[in-house]
Amino acid sequence: MSLREHALSLFRSAVGTVQPASMLKRAVTLQGDGCPQLLVKGRAFPVKRNLYLVGFGKAVLGMAAAAEEILGDHLVRGIISVPLGIQESLQRAGMHEMLLKPHSKIQVIEGAKNNLPDPEALQGALAIQKLAEGLTADDLLLVLISGGGSALLPAPIPPILLKEKEELTKMLASRGAAIQELNIVRKTLSVLKGGGLARLAYPAQVVSLILSDVVGDPLDIIASGPTAASSHSTQDCLQILTKYNLLRSLPKSVEAVLSSSPTKPTAPEDYSHVYNIIIGSNALALDEAKHRAEGLGYATLILSAAICGEVGRIATLYCQLIQLLCLGFADLGEGPLGDEVRGNLLQLVAELKIPGLNLAEFLQALRGLGPERAVCILAGGETTVQLRGTGKGGRNQELALRVGLGLHRAQARETGSPLGRCEIVFLSGGTDGQDGPTEAAGAICSPKLVSEARQEGLDVEAFLGNNDSYTFFSRFQGGCHLLVTGLTGTNVMDIQVVLVRAMARS
């Protein structure tokens, strides 16, 4: 197998281990006949045909199918809001285990085309709201949450219109707002987010099963925290809007809601009827990919499950790591050039402030790998793109394109560069199978990308200047560098794979 085939295999194994059904079945069981109990990670909840289910997110269809199989006749009714086209996509891919059975008690509403809130998603949110409001103290509400839940549960506080909230979210994203910032604003302006769904379901017991797509797995940020006490206030929302110069251009409806919203978060004790549990995350996916890579013979290290920051700076991080690996293969890692690259890396990581990334410890582990084995570096998280152009792309495709350009420039700067003595592949892909408003999950690159593109008359820098990475990869070598998986039915942020091995000497 080639490095490219290995990279694809590692990505698939990472996605495969976070399939929703297997994760839900590991977390939830139903025990007992006379007095049955729902066991969730060891905690027991009595059930007497009083179970209701709601869900929203890219992985929720498969979660709901597994939940209904476990709950059986105890499930009274359910409503889930899932991405547009996911049922057809999974049917076409033969992933029947993720589909609900005929005559299911769970109603499926598809919406949020291109991961943006729309009238169909609003319909789903309102149906979920109505179900929650009708529950009693004798009922148990099982809530299924995964990435994409924010777009699939839009219920703006009146008089805010869905279109106004969507436009504000788009403007924030285009200016480089991180997912945490986007969700702080979303939940401040929402009926159901920021703990709203849990409050409406009171006095029913709420059990929330969560598949995390946010760095650090914060309960009040994943899908904008519909069942978690918010740690943010209206003031936090205003600070974000100020940061991105949007405070003076807000619709009157948004101004009205912000001026009348509570200044302090809701007290955590108001959520004593809620049990939130994370059943899957990016770290779980990376562990499986590491196991697979070691089985393929790679010396494997996980850089971080919390990679975040502007995509150009993250591309620089990967390029410098790859340079350091190649210097090690050439026995130059301990020389002046290796010291320079290490120094640059330490400074960059200090500026990026990636949670939990101990670069000094990682570099020490890197030194111990030795030059005789191929090396795999794995990472996950979610980068941000600051839009400057009008092209079509996504953060993973842009990251791959920027890494390809960075490696080309590093190789061109130095005659006899160690990069030229190694085989290198870099892959970045979204575990949900969707990268921006495209059918691709991401892309793959190597140091040869720029020179080969020039032979086809493609200017990488021009495409990047227009944020047009998808168009580039579609045209380049017939689109073979695009990572196209279709909707995967899960979502735990992005996965990056770096593979490096020394070329055989002739």
Overall description:
- The protein has helices at 3-17, 20-27, 60-71, 86-92, 119-133, 149-152, 162-174, 179-188, 196-201, 234-243, 252-260, 282-295, 311-329, 336-352, 359-367, 395-413, 449-455, 460-465, 469-475; strands at residues 28-31, 37-40, 43-46, 51-56, 75-83, 106-111, 140-145, 205-211, 274-280, 299-310, 375-384, 422-430, 442-445, 482-483, 494-502.
- With 506 residues, it is α/β, with parallel strands linked by helices.
- The strands form 3 sheets. A 6-stranded parallel β-sheet has the order 6-5-4-7-8-9, with helices on both faces. A 6-stranded mixed β-sheet has the order 10-11-15-12-13-14, sandwiched between helices.
- The longest helix has 19 residues, at 311-329.
- The radius of gyration is 24 Å and the shape is globular.
- It starts with a helix and ends with a strand.
Outline the fold blueprint.
Blueprint: H1 3-17, H2 20-27, E1 28-31, E2 37-40, E3 43-46, E4 51-56, H3 60-71, E5 75-83, H4 86-92, E6 106-111, H5 119-133, E7 140-145, H6 149-152, H7 162-174, H8 179-188, H9 196-201, E8 205-211, H10 234-243, H11 252-260, E9 274-280, H12 282-295, E10 299-310, H13 311-329, H14 336-352, H15 359-367, E11 375-384, H16 395-413, E12 422-430, E13 442-445, H17 449-455, H18 460-465, H19 469-475, E14 482-483, E15 494-502
Parallel strand pairs: 4-5, 4-7, 5-6, 7-8, 8-9, 10-11
Antiparallel strand pairs: 1-2, 2-3, 11-15, 12-13, 12-15, 13-14
